[in-house]
Write a structure and sequence with these properties.
With 347 residues, the chain is mainly α. It is 76% helix and 0% strand.
Length: 347
């Protein structure tokens, strides 16, 4: 590989010395991680049992929670083993729980949730651990959603979250040097977008139940607007990917892709959620990201299955819908395949 790079003029000089990298088997890492979790749990149980009367005081609980989060930060900075990672993770989660207990009386205030979101965002940026960054980012976005629960923007949060997902994955090349920091953020936004839209698409009653009786914004007319925005994002994502692969919009292949995306966007207005699934599938396929591609396929079949289950028609009519959808997709695939072969022949 070094010789090939040298012949291509990409590298110069002598080949660097080969460094042996110690590869730890996955099952050893799993055992180390479980051991770290058990050690942290028993240590915390011992400490909390000794100071259980003090921990019941909110001020003490808050200070102790901050100290545990600081201890987790020290563990992550000093050690990089699976044991240390899981040990620090449990310390941090316990610290989070104590801090939430300390401020639980103020959780009905939207400003409190904004402060929680800000703190979690700072933890995402500074604590160097993948899972901790993932969960902290997940908590930060969830806190923002709860903070906006009485505002009309609540019903647009799935589309706003998907904007962040698209920007992060489309510009992955720009943050590859900071992959350890941005990759868990991208995955967290992806999971939040899927979960949030799945809850919102069940209707006002489901969101009200998930909000545990808190007052919700009555501007539910924004829910269809959210679906329109998601469909538009699907078309925009296709246009961006066409530009990445230097395929002009006015070409036959480009027009076919945009028409197919528009049809899928219109279908998503009825079978809500399909636009999110197709966006993730396109982003995962274009980046060669199997994890993202798998999430897209999982979301696609989940949304499609939910739509089929809640469709208020007879089973025979449902069969006709499935047959028609399958035939339409096969025709679209055949048309794209024909256009590709035709352009290759002309080239």
């Amino acid at each position: 590989l070094w010789q090939q790079l040298h012949d291509a003029g990409i590298v110069t000089g002598e080949m660097p010395n080969v460094v042996d990298i110690e590869v730890i088997p996955w099952y050893v890492r799993v055992i180390q991680g479980l051991t770290g979790q058990f050690a942290a749990v028993f240590l915390l149980l011992f400490v909390l049992s000794l100071f259980r009367d003090f921990v019941k005081q909110e001020e003490v609980a808050f200070v102790l929670g901050l100290l545990l989060i600081g201890a987790a930060y020290t563990v992550f900075r000093q050690l990089s083993t699976a044991f240390a990672g899981q040990f620090g993770l449990m310390l941090s989660f316990t610290g989070h729980a104590l801090c939430l207990f300390a401020v639980h009386r103020a959780l009905d205030n939207s400003s409190t949730w904004l402060i929680i979101a800000l703190i979690e965002a700072l933890l995402v940026w500074f604590i160097p651990h993948f899972l901790h960054r993932f969960f902290s980012c997940y908590a930060a976005v969830s806190a923002l959603v709860i903070a906006s629960i009485k505002l009309p923007i609540l019903w647009l949060m799935p589309s706003l979250t998907m904007i962040a997902v698209i920007l992060l994955w489309l510009h992955e090349v720009k943050w590859l040097t900071q992959s350890a920091r941005f990759r868990p953020i991208a995955y967290a936004f992806t999971f939040v977008a899927i979960q949030m839209h799945s809850t919102f698409s069940l209707g006002y009653a489901a969101v009200f139940q998930a909000a545990e009786g808190r007052g919700l914004s009555a501007q539910t007319w924004l829910i269809p607007v959210n679906e329109v925005l998601l469909g538009a994002m699907l078309v925009v994502t296709i246009i961006k990917l066409l530009a990445r692969y230097q395929i002009t919009v006015v070409s036959k292949q480009g027009l076919a892709a945009i028409i197919a995306g528009s049809v899928l966007a219109l279908m998503s207005l009825q079978a809500t959620g399909l636009a999110i699934a197709w966006i993730l599938i396109l982003l995962g396929f274009s980046a060669g990201n199997r994890m993202l591609l798998g999430l897209g396929f999982f979301a696609f079949w989940s949304y499609l299955g939910r739509y089929y289950y809640f469709l208020n028609i007879s089973l025979l009519d449902k069969s006709y819908v499935l047959i028609g959808t399958g035939v339409l997709m096969l025709l679209m695939r055949q048309g794209l395949k024909h256009l590709r072969m035709e352009e290759t022949h002309h080239a």
